[in-house]
Each structure stands twice: as C-alpha cells, then as structure tokens.
Amino acid sequence: MWERANRELIAKLLTELEFEELLRPVEGPEWSLSLGALTLHYTAVRRALGHARVDPASLRATRDGVEVPLPDAVEIVAIGAPALGVDPATTAGLIGELSMTLLSDVHQLTHGRPATELIDLPAVELEGELRGHPWIVASKGRVGFSAADAERFAPEARRPVPLLALEVEGADWRGAAVSRVIPVHPWQWEHRIRPLYAGDVARGRIRLAGAYPGRWLPQQSLRTLADADDPARHHVKLALSILNTSVYRGLPRERTLAAPALSAWLRSRVSGDPFLGDLILPGEVASVSVAHRAFELVEDVPYQHTELLGAIWRESVEGYLRPGERAISLAALLHRDPDGVGFVEPLIERSGLSVGEWVARLHEVTLPPLLHVLYRFGAAFSPHGQNCLLVLRDDAPARLAVKDFVDDMMVSSDPLPELADMPADVRAALGDGVEAAILVQWIQGGLLVCVHRYLSELLLERLGYPEQAFWAAAERVVAGYQERFPELADRFALFDLDAPAFVKLCLNRVRMLERGYADAASRPVAAAVGWIDNPLTPA
What is the pTM of this model? Predict the structure, then answer.
C-alpha cells in the first residue's frame, strides 16, 4: 500500500501545486517536470476550473534521461521545494507533514471499507473513513502528534478519545449552562496544560476532576468530538495545539467567548426569514475560555499561546432532523473507497434519481440559502466540506445545515442596515468585516473550489456526467434565485457572483512561501495568486 499511497500523494502534489501556479510542467501527450537531473513524466487532464488532474498510475521518473524507480514524495519535495524558493526549515517541515500524511493514507487504504458499506454509517462514524482535506497536500501533517498519538486520537483510528474534566477558577463562561466542568483533550492536558499552567495546577486553581462522561469520537477537524452513544448530544470543540492544514487547532479566546452571542444573533436573523425556513444552524450555545496569565502579557505573542484552554458546546444536527432524514458532511461526497468507488455513487443509485436530477437537487439545496444569507444579511459562511452538512431524505439532497460560525463566518465591512444591531462582543470578535469582493470569495473558494471542483470531476470519471452539465445546473439555480428576489438587485451587484473570473485562493502557497512554520500573532490567511474562470457566469 505504501507504493500506491506514495503515487497518489505525488499526483496530488503535482496537481495542486500546478493549480496554484507554483509548478510549470511541460504539457503534452505526456507531461514532464524537470527537477534538476530528476524528471517526472505523467499524463494529466485539464479540468473546468483550471487544475490538471494527474493520473497516479502514469507516473514515472528518469534521471539524466535514464529510467529510475519513482522516488518517495518526500524526496521530490526535498529536491524541488528549494528551487521554488522554499527555505530549508520549511522544506524540512513539509517533509515531516507529508510523512505523517502518508502514514495515515496507508492506514486508510489498508483498512478502508467499500463505499456500499459506508452510506448507512452514522455521520459521526463516517468521519473516521474520510481522507482529509482534498486540496492541501499535507492534509494530515498533525505537527505535534507522534505516530502513537495518531493511532489514539486521529479520526481514522475510529477509537473514542477519553476526555478529561477540569475545574478551573477564574474561567470565563458564556451561554447556557451545558456543563460546569471544562472538557479537555488528553493530549492537550499532557502537552500544554500540565506544563504551561503548572503554577495554577500547583495552587489548585486548575483541578483534574476525573473523566468527562461520554465516548467521544474525533471528527475530521481533530478538535471537535461527538458522543458515539448519543448522536443528539452536544458536540464539544476543544483547544488542541496541533498544527494541521495551516493553523494550530486552538480556540481563539475572543471568538470563543463570542460564540453563543453570535449564534443567537445569526439565528434570530435566519428564523425571521421565511425563505430560510429549511436552513439548519446548529448553535454554539455555550463556551468557556481560560486565559494564560503570562502569555497574555506578551505583546504580539504568537496566537497558539493564547488559544490553549477552552471549549465550545455545539448543538448536534440530529435534534433538527425530521423523520426519514439523516445528515452527512459535504466532504463525504468527495470520498473514494480503496477501490476508487465514490461514496456518492451508491448514494445516487439508491436514490432512484438520475445523476443530473441528483446534482440539480444538490445545487437547489445548497446554493440558495448560502446566497440568501450573503445578499440579505451581508454575512457569509465558509461552506467547505466540513462546515456544511447535507441533509438527505431517501438518499437525495433535501436540506442544508451549516455549522462552525465562530471560526468560519464573516460579515461585510459595508455599512449594511442588517448588521447595525450586531452585539458589541460579536462585532469585536469579527472585527471590521471584509469588503464585498472578498466576502464573495468565501463561497467561491469554500464551495466551488474546495468541494465542487472535486465532486464534478468524480462524477465525470466515475459516472460519465459532464463537468459542463454540473456547472450549468449550478448556474441555473443561481439565476433562478436572483429572478425570485429582484428587490435584492443592488446586493447582487455588491456581492458580484456573476463576474467572469474570481481570484484564485492558494492554500499550499501559504505554508510553502509565506508563513512557513514561523509563529506569528495572527493566523495565516490564504494567498491570492491568479484567476479562475467563473463557472457560474451566464453563457
């Protein structure tokens, strides 16, 4: 399995780094990329959103023109990254992250179950089958975890994590009284809380109060966990100082404390709009954060040191489901089993719908509510695969649920009246907002590029459904929505989703060329390089 996982990761590297305009291979019937004396040869197919998908099976290598065994992905990075301007420390870090990613990939290829067995799994168990971020090449780098930690705490381990309960003097609480002890991840307790809060532990300000009740399964984000025995129970989102997919997975203090107020404000808006009656927003109903006395005194201290101890309690989508409904993450639609069969294939087959009908339902369920929140309220979610849940009825898309407001929601910086009464603590946590063109990118980058870029090519490769038909169906849904709400014409112009192209956000560039592994006071943001032809622009 190592050879297969290695080929697939090299193909992903070549695909995504060329998409982000870091690599410039020679195109042809057989593509080639020269890295000094080493040359990689392969076939690739250019897709609708501009990326060229590399066929892993086609990969071969030559050195000075002589055929040689295909190197490991980490060797290719070691040779190629410096030529792109990646510094030695960052190159070394990438080698480590890619090695951990390969370790996980081999495990999942070895133990993964057929897609036909997955479509009826409970959503919290399905998360353990998924392969990680489809775009970021080091999708499971998990810097800070040992191999043993990954076997205990990663979602693909499919093992409950025994959470600990802490009693903490001086903790800052917000929202409903879901608990009066703070759940903490055992890794965080051993590696961050015990050593860094040692004085508070010694003086009894932080007390270990035993186990936090429940059997908690980690979801794809690592730090969010769901109770395996009680799907309707609140999920818990915990601080976990692991560097994965670009950021440390801690809990930003200001946003954590604002989470319940943000949930309440957002849901008050949505509940008053008849068009959004089917949109589910699982609320972040309670939160707690514990400041570190010393780190808080350091001006511009790296953000990981201010996000060490806290928790957010989020409602489970299960409590919102109607009879006959179930929910899966959009990320599940991108999953392929070890035989290459997509999770979505048996789902569509069992629904009784044609591929085109199923896709039309998907767009009808997802796009209008996301657009309506943007146009009507000047707010946008980052609707990537983990934040959006697709509610199914009879295996067909029926409704949409969106979660994780505190980390992945933003508002417009324009003085829109709908934003005027936002609570002060929420406004402080969100800052000044972002300009309209950037807010639109949250949907373009999060949904069109991070989800539909992959789903559309899966449907083409596996079911023969044309990419053009996929995007045309999406464009029809957008046009239909806009025709329904002519009174929002000024917002359609402000948040221009019909522009012929939009900025290409580049996630791998951030690690490789901009932030590296250096600490900083703020979290990194995606780089913007190049343009993508807008697949939703009317013909």
Answer: 0.96
